[in-house]
Design goal:
The chain is α/β, with parallel strands linked by helices and 365 residues long. It has helices at residues 9-14, 27-35, 52-63, 84-89, 93-105, 116-119, 124-135, 150-158, 170-178, 200-211, 225-233, 255-263, 286-290, 304-318, 342-363, and strands at residues 20-24, 39-43, 69-73, 141-145, 162-167, 183-187, 193-194, 216-219, 239-241, 269-272, 280-283. Bound molecules: flavin mononucleotide (FMN).
Length: 365
């Protein structure tokens, strides 16, 4: 029997072969996802705004007319404008001392290369610069997480872009729909990155129930084809995966981080505010664990926690520090077993959807 293909209305609309949406900060991963028949979403929230036009130009040069999306994080309650040096001077001395103590304890050396984490602060001015760059691109989809901006949604739609919003609750979903968002990504507690308290399996049917005609995608903890098919069975039009791609060669994952992800199971991820100031699921390391020790202060809010610790995150990635390295990662980390490629991951996901379908057919009376 030939393998079934699962082309939901959203797949048809976007012209993709598989109902698999892949979030990644890596252009190489995004290109490979597009070539494998999925819909890539390039995360731009960690890029320096002046670099975004060149990144998107590269994406478009390499993808030709294959569709892709971009993603921005737009939290509210950030300063209008901010300089990292100005905010560093305003950090609470107790927190500065604590982090200084950790730097000494773990021998953290300063990063050598400038990066988002050492030079940028999330502010409205930064978001404006990111938005302008994104609107000027040919991206077919524009996704936002953590916050919503009515002007971005309106302007993206006016340029023919499909708007997506990551939502973690029915309240968020209603707000996004009221602002005119067209696709809801129901992202559960299991997900890597910033998450809410409701698990994906419980969240998806609730979001489907309020979405009306708006397509819903399921996100969080999904790493197998059976889960993708299960999401469609629950009313979603596809699944949105993030963690899985970190196993792909195209992600250029630092070797120590890849080794940690391979060795980790779902229970080795936890939700912490230590990374960004907002609850974020990451894979544990000694750095993350240090923030759970009895003498540790409560992490600061967003963006101040990253002003406090951004250089450490940059350093442990730059130096591939086996003891401290961590990254946003979902409970889906269970499926990271060995280094691989995006094409092999797609082959496996699609074959697994097919065997799940046959299994179901076998049970149908
Ligand atoms: C390393 C990493 C970075 C992420 N960064 C962002 C981001 O910048 N913006 C965003 O909307 N989601 C981000 N996410 C969340 C993904 O969009 C997605 O919802 C999530 O990965 C789905 O759950 P999974 O990790 O179990 O597949 C990130 C996820 C990971 C693993």
């Amino acid at each position: 029997m030939a393998a079934a293909t699962w082309r939901t209305p959203l797949c048809e609309r976007l012209g993709i072969r598989h109902p698999i949406f892949g979030f990644s900060h890596s252009v190489d991963v995004a290109v490979a996802i597009a070539e494998s028949g999925g819909f890539p979403v390039v995360g731009l929230a960690r890029e320096m705004p002046h670099e975004i036009p060149a990144i998107l130009a590269e994406v478009e040069r390499r993808m030709g007319d294959m569709p892709y999306g971009i993603d921005l994080m737009l939290p509210s309650k950030v300063p209008q404008e901010a300089s990292i040096d100005g905010l560093r001077a305003a950090l609470p001395p107790g927190h500065v001392d604590f982090v200084e103590g950790l730097r000494r304890r773990f021998d953290v050396t300063p990063p050598e290369k400038p990066s988002f984490f050492t030079t940028q602060v999330r502010s409205e001015a930064l978001f404006d610069a990111q938005i302008e760059a994104v609107l000027a691109s040919n991206a077919r989809g524009v996704a936002t997480a953590i916050g919503l901006r009515a002007d971005l949604i309106e302007r993206a739609k006016a340029r023919g872009k499909l708007t997506f919003s990551l939502v973690g609750s029915v309240r968020h979903a209603r707000k996004a729909l009221a602002m005119g968002v067209e696709v809801l990504v129901a992202q559960g507690y299991d997900a890597g990155g910033h998450t809410g308290p409701v698990g994906t399996l419980s969240l998806v049917p609730q979001i489907v129930a309020v979405a009306g005609d708006a397509p819903v995608l399921a996100a969080g903890g999904i790493a197998t084809g059976a889960q993708v098919l299960g999401s469609i069975a629950m009313g979603a039009q596809g699944a949105w995966l993030g963690t899985l791609w970190m196993a792909a060669r195209e992600n250029h994952t630092p070797p120590a981080l890849l080794a940690r992800l391979i060795a980790s199971g779902s229970e080795d991820t936890l939700i912490t505010r230590a990374h960004s100031g907002k609850p974020c699921r990451v894979v544990r390391s000694d750095w993350i664990d240090a923030w759970g020790e009895p003498d540790a202060p409560e992490p600061l809010g967003m963006p101040m926690q990253q002003v406090l610790t951004g250089d450490v995150f940059a350093s442990i990635h730059e130096h591939d520090d086996a003891r401290l390295i961590y990254e946003a990662a979902g409970q889906s980390v269970f499926a990271i077993e060995a280094p691989t490629t995006v094409a092999a991951q797609f082959e496996r996901l699609v074959a697994d959807m097919d065997s799940a379908w046959r299994r179901l057919q076998g049970f149908a009376a």
